[in-house]
Known about the structure:
The structure is a single chain. By secondary structure, the protein is mostly beta strands. The chain is 12% helix and 40% strand. Strands 1-2-5-4-3-6 form a 6-stranded antiparallel β-barrel. The chain is globular, with a radius of gyration of 17 Å. Catalyzes the dismutation of two molecules of 6,7-dimethyl-8-ribityllumazine, resulting in the formation of riboflavin and 5-amino-6-(D-ribitylamino)uracil. Lumazine-binding repeats lie at residues 1-95, 96-192. InterPro entries: ATP_synth_asu-like_sf (IPR023366), Lumazine-bd (IPR001783), Lumazine-bd_dom (IPR026017), Riboflavin_synthase-like_b-brl (IPR017938). This is Riboflavin synthase.
Amino acid sequence: MFTGIIEATGTVKAIETSGSNRHFDIESPISSELKVDQSVSHNGVCLTVTAVGENNHRVTAVEETLRKSSLGHLKPGAAVNLERCMKSDGRFDGHIVQGHVDSVGEVTRREERDGSWLFTFRFPAEFSKFMVEKGSVTINGISLTCFNVGRTEFTVTIIPYTYEHTTMKNLNPGDLVNLEFDVVGKYVQRILTLSGRL
Length: 198
């Protein structure tokens, strides 16, 4: 489980395709602290570390992950947000994040607002039932609060710290992002559906 509070950003150094899988070699400040078989969020996708070097590590994405996330669009040199799983004795600073991407979204607008930034994202209408005004959403692994929630779009505000310490500064209209919707909302939706109340 993750919290959506990014620890560091890494850089994709190399990508290798093996059958339907894709291996990513990532260079980052936390790579040397990782261990093989550890779960780490990469742009919001929970991936297992398969190898660790001095300043780099390797993870593998299977076909299903590549199909449901934006990882398949990464190229060498791309930056990725990284977060290790939450410690049981740590503070819960974000919200419950599983690292299971629900959908790919698209940046439709970016606007600077005198020290902060507004980003608007388009997402598939089928997921609108999980979005609520001032609710939580995970964008490329970052826990954020959404507003101006519509059937296919929502907006978030990015403060300077988040802008400088994550990949948000690299996003422009047309770019794709990984979206994970609030797991609590998904469970409520499932319970109500099974009980016949929806």
